Amino acid sequence: MRPEPSLRREPGFGLVAALFLIVVVTLLVITMARLSTVQHGSTSLAIQQARAYQAARAGLEWGIHQAVGAGSCASGSPDMAGSGLAEFSVSVGCESDSYSDNEGNPVQIFRFTAEAQNGTPGGRPDYAYRRLTAVVEN
Asked: What are the tens digits of pLDDT across the range 40-55?
């Protein structure tokens, strides 16, 4: 004859289950915290990249205004002080070509390059750089 199996629960199973749940919940919390940190850094970088684009665009507009008004190339670094883009350094380069069209009228072509950056590469975690070009016929 065989002894009847015991239907009693083994002592200590509840403790093991509780520890397992604590470990799983802790790992989930750590993972969520890391994802939140990465997402915050990505959002900050996206904002800085959009601001770098706006600073480079402002540099292009400055160069176009200078060249069309004076009729000659204007290169330089427009001042961004007093704006939300003050932390960006902007440099604008310009090349021009003159020629005559089919009717003999003088035409001048300006090629602008504007670069905007907020520091040096590797110098800050939210470093952003943008380079824009434009061609204007005058």
From this structure: 667 788 899 999 999 9
Q: Answer yes or no: are the C-beta atoms of 82 and 102 closer than 8 Å.
A: no
Given a contact cutoff of 8 angstroms between Cβ atoms, the answer to whether 60 and 112 are in contact is yes
Report helix, strand or coil for 42: helix
Estimate to the nearest angstrom the gap between the alpha carbon of 121 and the chain centroid.
13
Query: For residue 115, which of 94, 129, 126, 125 has the smallest C-alpha distance?
Result: 129
Residue 32's pLDDT is 86
Amino acid, single-letter form, for residue 76: G
Which letter, b or e, does each residue of 63-79 get, where b requires 16 or more Cβ atoms within 10 Å of its Cβ? Answer: bbebbeeeeebbeeebe
Give the list of residues 6+ apart from residue 26 with CB closer than 8 angstroms, or none. Answer: none
pTM value? 0.68
Task: Single out the residue of 97, 89, 134 nearest to residue 113, CA to CA.
Answer: 134
Nearest to 59 by CA among 110, 98, 97, 94: 94
Helices (H) then strands (E): counts for the chain: 1, 3
